[in-house]
């Protein structure tokens, strides 16, 4: 009898379209591996579909809020259904960029200097740029995925416009110093202590707001950069108690390595960062998806 897998995708976040692509790719891979697949476009309710189909495992292919932040994971824990990816607490931690930054500091992982404030406690550009020692700043909503609501500002006008956009999405914003360097992503799979670091991916864009990126694998790193990047990634994966898979975004320059954020449910297609990194390790997309599901099945709730 084949394993019944429920694939959750879609959702209501700003990353809905990408989630649909991930869900379809995962579903096709599972079907190719012989699973009995149920596809479900998640709209903030999961109990009924679980009761009707009684899946053996749920593959969460949701991105952003209400999918990557621990909410769906919590519902599945209550329903005693094993699911792919990180736990409720780890998902919530990684989705909150501010809490992640505090944790980076706690485990001695370098991250860009930052401050944060709410709408009611506005900090002007002149103050923040002096505080962080950098006229170039990065404004981020604390609880959105990808580059949604993110602005790079080098003057007061752009800074205020960026804050307005960010505050439309969240009540608290994170403002970081801008670090110039190469953008890389470390993809990890497995569960502690058997954690496997896939070849590091370098992302090349025309500009920060470019929605597409060319992937160079392996990333063009000096030996000390590669070593530190992998060390940081392993430390984060272990100390954040991540499961099954994750992507960790970093900036690398001639002086150091800086961790930006952790994605517990990155885009999951054959040509995504995850898929390309696996391919560079001679792991097919179908085998990768199967591996993730088998890891989840070992965690019978």
TrEMBL record:
Listed Pfam families: Dala_Dala_lig_C, Dala_Dala_lig_N
* EC number of the protein: 6.3.2.4
- Extract one GO molecular function annotation from the record: ATP binding
Q: Could you confirm whether the keyword Isomerase appears in this record?
A: no
The pathway this protein participates in, as annotated, is: Cell wall biogenesis; peptidoglycan biosynthesis
Q: What is this protein called?
A: D-alanine--D-alanine ligase
Quote the PANTHER family the UniProt record gives.
D-ALANINE--D-ALANINE LIGASE (PTHR23132), D-ALANINE--D-ALANINE LIGASE B (PTHR23132:SF23)
This molecule's function is given as:
Cell wall formation.
Q: Which domain of life is it from?
A: Bacteria
Q: Where is the ATP-grasp domain?
A: 101-294
Q: Which reaction does it catalyse?
A: 2 D-alanine + ATP = D-alanyl-D-alanine + ADP + phosphate + H(+)
Q: Where does Mg(2+) 1 bind?
A: 249, 261
Cellular component per GO?
A: cytoplasm
Cofactor comment:
Binds 2 magnesium or manganese ions per subunit.
GO biological processes: cell wall organization; peptidoglycan biosynthetic process; regulation of cell shape
**Chief location category:** cytoplasm
Its gene?
ddl
């Amino acid at each position: 009898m084949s394993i019944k897998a429920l694939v959750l995708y879609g959702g209501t976040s700003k990353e809905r379209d990408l989630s649909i692509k991930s869900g379809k790719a995962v579903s096709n891979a599972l079907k190719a591996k012989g699973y009995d697949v149920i596809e479900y476009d998640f709209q903030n309710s999961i109990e009924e579909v679980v009761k009707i189909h009684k899946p053996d495992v749920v593959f969460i292919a949701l991105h952003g809020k209400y999918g990557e932040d621990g909410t769906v994971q919590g519902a599945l824990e209550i329903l005693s259904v094993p699911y792919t990816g990180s736990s409720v607490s780890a998902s919530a931690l990684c989705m909150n960029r501010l809490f992640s930054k505090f944790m980076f500091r706690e485990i001695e992982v370098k991250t860009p200097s930052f401050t944060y404030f709410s709408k009611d406690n506005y900090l002007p550009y002149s103050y923040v740029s002096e505080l962080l020692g950098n006229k170039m700043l990065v404004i981020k909503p604390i609880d959105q995925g990808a580059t949604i609501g993110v602005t790079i500002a080098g003057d007061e006008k752009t800074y205020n416009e960026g804050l307005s956009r960010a505050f439309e999405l969240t009540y608290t914003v994170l403002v970081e110093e801008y670090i110039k360097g190469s953008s890389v992503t470390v993809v990890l799979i497995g569960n502690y202590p058997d954690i496997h670091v896939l070849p590091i991916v370098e992302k090349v864009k025309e500009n920060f707001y470019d929605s597409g990126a060319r992937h160079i694998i392996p990333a063009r790193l000096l030996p000390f950069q590669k070593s530190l990047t992998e060390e940081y990634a392993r430390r984060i994966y272990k100390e954040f108690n991540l499961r099954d898979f994750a992507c960790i975004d970093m900036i690398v320059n001639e002086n150091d390595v800086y961790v930006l954020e952790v994605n517990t449910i990155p885009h999951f297609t054959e040509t995504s960062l995850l898929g390309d990194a696996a391919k560079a390790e001679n792991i097919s997309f179908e085998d990768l998806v199967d591996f993730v599901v088998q890891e989840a099945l070992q965690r019978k709730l």
